[in-house]
Design goal:
Elements: H1 2-17, H2 23-48, H3 50-53, H4 70-88, H5 92-117, E1 131-134, E2 140-143, H6 146-166, H7 171-190, E3 199-200, E4 203-204, H8 205-230
Antiparallel strand pairs: 1-2, 3-4
């Protein structure tokens, strides 16, 4: 319910900030991005738990049973936006920046959903800053506020990107910084999670996914910065 509400509020937010002549186009782009994220998130989850799904083929499309990967959602959403940019001849950075309110709303609602449903929770603590949170067995104890911290960081990241956009930072740089900020946020929070997860070389798969996304985005930003630096300046 919270995810559906977050997606609805995000699309409304996108429509409200878009120019009147582009509102319908921006909402359509948001729906395409959500569909890509939904497909990518489910595919990544199924791939990670293939040992189960190879004998339960009928459950693969049953998304309502649960099972999504944030890395798959991010990748699927980015691929959908890239295809949209290719088909509509729009810069990818412009589309990402226009839809960032949607992604912020979805991220906040996803973290809050995890807090209520016992997913991506933190380790138990006995300090004053611990918050009551349940695990997958329904046990509620004071834990690291991992989910609430994730929601807060998503809002802070949006505030920074909005500030950069108002300072006339090129959309492609704003979009790159947004994706880099998201990947670094998820990378840091992966070390605060205590829920069971598949691991590789003693690190969670979520950690490796966030690291790969951060490195890829950083290299893309580096290439953009080099191209901007090498562009000839106009002489007065």
């Amino acid at each position: 319910m919270l995810l559906g509400l977050g997606a609805t509020l995000g699309l409304s937010w996108v429509a409200r900030q878009a120019p009147p002549e582009r509102r319908l186009r921006e909402v359509d782009a948001g729906l395409v991005a959500l569909l890509g994220g939904l497909i990518g998130g489910r595919m990544a989850f199924v791939a990670a738990d293939w040992s189960y799904f190879q004998s339960h083929w009928g459950e693969i499309p049953l998304i309502h049973l649960g099972g999504m990967s944030w890395a798959g959602v991010s990748t699927g959403g980015l691929v959908a936006q890239a295809l949209l940019a290719l088909l509509t001849h729009q810069p990818l950075g412009t589309i990402i920046v226009a839809l960032w309110p949607l992604w912020t709303s979805v991220m906040v609602s996803a973290w809050l959903s995890c807090w209520l449903d016992g997913c991506a929770y933190g380790a138990p603590v006995a300090d004053w800053w611990g918050v009551p949170a349940r695990d997958e067995w329904g046990t509620i104890v004071l834990r690291w506020p991992t989910q609430l911290l994730g929601a807060l960081l998503a809002v802070i990241l949006f505030g920074f990107l909005n500030w950069a956009h108002q300072r006339c930072l090129p959309p492609r740089l704003s979009a790159g910084l947004g994706v880099l900020g998201l990947s670094l946020e998820m990378l840091a929070l992966s070390f605060l999670r205590a829920d069971p997860s598949l691991q590789w070389h003693n690190l969670r798969l979520e950690t490796w996914a966030a690291l790969a996304l951060a490195v890829g985005t950083f290299l893309a930003l580096l290439v953009m910065a080099i191209r901007l630096f090498n562009q000839p300046t106009e002489r007065l």
